[in-house]
TrEMBL record:
Entry superkingdom: Bacteria
Record's protein name: FTR1 family iron permease
Organism taxonomic ancestry: Bacteria, Pseudomonadati, Pseudomonadota, Gammaproteobacteria, Vibrionales
Molecular function GO labels: ferrous iron transmembrane transporter activity
Subcellular locations according to the entry: Membrane
InterPro entries xref list: FTR1/Fip1/EfeU
Organism field: Photobacterium kishitanii
Length: 278
């Protein structure tokens, strides 16, 4: 999972920082900007606090479950994370070009007569949304945190936020040459691969539980479809990186292959249909 944490934090932090930047620039043009900024940072604090509480809740629930309960909880979270990633990428694909105008129009509607609580509400909801997605996406990592790996995890979190801030700054300098839509589309594709990686882990976890409890499972579903270990072993550095981000398996079972193909067929239908009716 190393590197996956940093990427997810980086990608999601960019959205959150972009939103804060848009709202900050809008407030600075307002005659009552000093008062408005207090509500902006208040919304940021509420959103971050909500995300942290969710992470603690997931960690707490996981630790009171039995071994089987923990396995089921992990599987459910992996499925939920997969669905959320696809939903988020689809939303960004639909709104990345008009996000700034939508945010500004929403702010104007909610701050009539200087009702700055509207700013707090928008920012808190947006930050909590991004934060909760991060928590769900990384739930498997969060649930496995201990004294041995906690330092690495928080280092990647801090690194992801720092790189996101730097990326945002660089894009403000070159956004005339590289539109945000291209950036979000490119990282969106990587996220869709990350989603299928989580889906495969969930599906493989399901079949392992069924086999463990002696449920009848067609034999061919858990037979290896091929073996590319000699070419690229998924336990090595590069193989593990491809495993985490793109769902690579050097010895995939047939159920994983079927799931992978079915997933991309569904993704193709969803996004091609959206483009057809756009």
């Amino acid at each position: 999972m190393k590197g996956q944490v940093l990427f997810v934090i980086w990608r999601e932090s960019i959205e959150a920082l972009l939103l804060i930047g848009i709202i900050y620039a809008w407030i600075k043009q307002h005659v009552d900007s000093r008062n408005g900024l207090r509500y902006l940072w208040g919304g940021v604090a509420i959103g971050i606090s909500t995300s942290i509480l969710l992470a603690l809740l997931i960690y707490g629930v996981f630790n009171v479950l039995s071994d089987t309960g923990q396995s089921l909880f992990m599987i459910i979270m992996e499925f939920v994370a997969c669905i959320l990633i696809v939903q988020m990428v689809y939303w960004m694909n639909c709104h990345s070009g008009s996000m700034k105008s939508e945010i500004v129009s929403g702010l104007e509607a909610r701050t009539e007569n200087q009702h700055w609580w509207g700013v707090t509400f928008i920012v808190a909801i947006a930050i909590a949304r991004e934060g909760s997605e991060i928590v769900v996406f990384l739930s498997g990592v969060i649930m496995s945190l201990n004294s041995a790996n906690a330092a690495d995890f928080f280092a990647e979190v801090g690194g992801g936020i720092a790189i996101a801030a730097l990326t945002l700054y660089l894009f403000t300098l070159i956004n005339h040459y590289v539109p945000w839509r291209i950036f979000f589309n490119t990282t969106g594709i990587i996220l869709l691969f990350l989603a299928v990686s989580l889906l495969l882990k969930g599906v493989e976890g399901c079949i392992n539980l069924l086999i463990e409890y002696d449920y009848s499972v067609p034999d061919f579903l858990y037979y290896p479809a091929w073996n590319t270990t000699a070419l690229l072993d998924d336990s090595g550095f590069f193989g593990n990186l491809l495993n985490s981000f793109f769902g690579y398996r050097s010895q995939p079972i047939w159920l994983s292959v079927i799931t992978f193909v079915f997933y991309w067929m569904v993704i193709a239908v969803i996004f091609l249909r959206r483009r057809k009716y756009a």
